[in-house]
Amino acid sequence: MSKQILVISTSPRKGGNSDTLADAFIQGAREAGHKVEKINLYDKNIGFCKGCLTCVKTQRCVIHDDAADIARQMLTADVLVFATPIYYYGMCGQMKTMLDRSNPLYSAEYCFRDIYLLAAAAEEDEHTVDGTVTGLQGWIDCFEKARLAGTVFAGGVTAVGEIQGHAALERAHEMGRRV
Questions:
Q1: Under a CB-based contact definition with an 8 Å cutoff, are residues 34 and 3 in contact?
Q2: Is the whole model's pTM more than 0.70, yes or no?
Q3: Among the residues of the chain, which ranges form H helices?
Q4: Domains in the chain and their CATH numbers?
Q5: I need a surface site. Which of 4, 36, 85, 129 has the fewest CB within 10 A?
Q6: What's phi and psi for 20, nearest 5 deg?
Q7: pLDDT in tens for each of the 179 residues of the chain?
């Protein structure tokens, strides 16, 4: 059965390593017959959450920017995929801000069940991704019908393009095919 997949690439760098992981996942998902949309946050206007909690009652954010539109797209996707560079052993600020701004989804009838994480970092140690997984899992825990379905980590990549030839690209591609 074809699924609607929304990939949110949170890298501040166009064509960054985590963005390249996202593209590999997308290629695999499309080969498997899924419908995929990709959103890049690097060219979006997204303000910080004000913590007013109006969205819990209204299911709409009081801030009218790109985050509100992205959250509405997240609502109807069957699968969510977050791609992020790892900074200081955690997700990048753009990803954290987008997760905070998706708070209107908490009390909504969301469609997503499976959530995937794609991450890249200069550090090679396999535990480099742990803080990012913990942060994303904290968000997922607020959605009782959703789960973290898989993670791909590419370590040892810093400059744009260094990920070329990395084994994580094939893992992301295969993960996309298996959605």
A1: yes
A2: yes
A3: 17-31, 54-58, 66-76, 93-101, 130-140, 167-177
A4: 4-177 (3.40.50.360)
A5: 4
A6: -70, -40
A7: 899 999 999 999 999 999 999 999 999 999 999 999 999 999 999 999 999 999 988 888 999 999 999 999 999 999 999 999 999 999 999 999 999 999 999 888 999 999 999 999 999 999 999 999 999 999 999 999 999 999 999 999 998 999 999 999 999 999 999 99
Structure tokens at 59: 């299911």
Q: Which residue has the tokens 């742990």?
A: 130
> Would you state the structure tokens that stand for residue 6, as one six-digit string?
């929304």
How open is the CA angle 124-129-133, to the nearest 5 degrees?
Answer: 170
Nearest Cα neighbor of 84 from 153, 149, 148 is 153
Encoded amino acid at 157, one letter = V
Angle between helices 130-140 and 93-101 (to 10 degrees): 10
d(CA 4, CA 30): 10
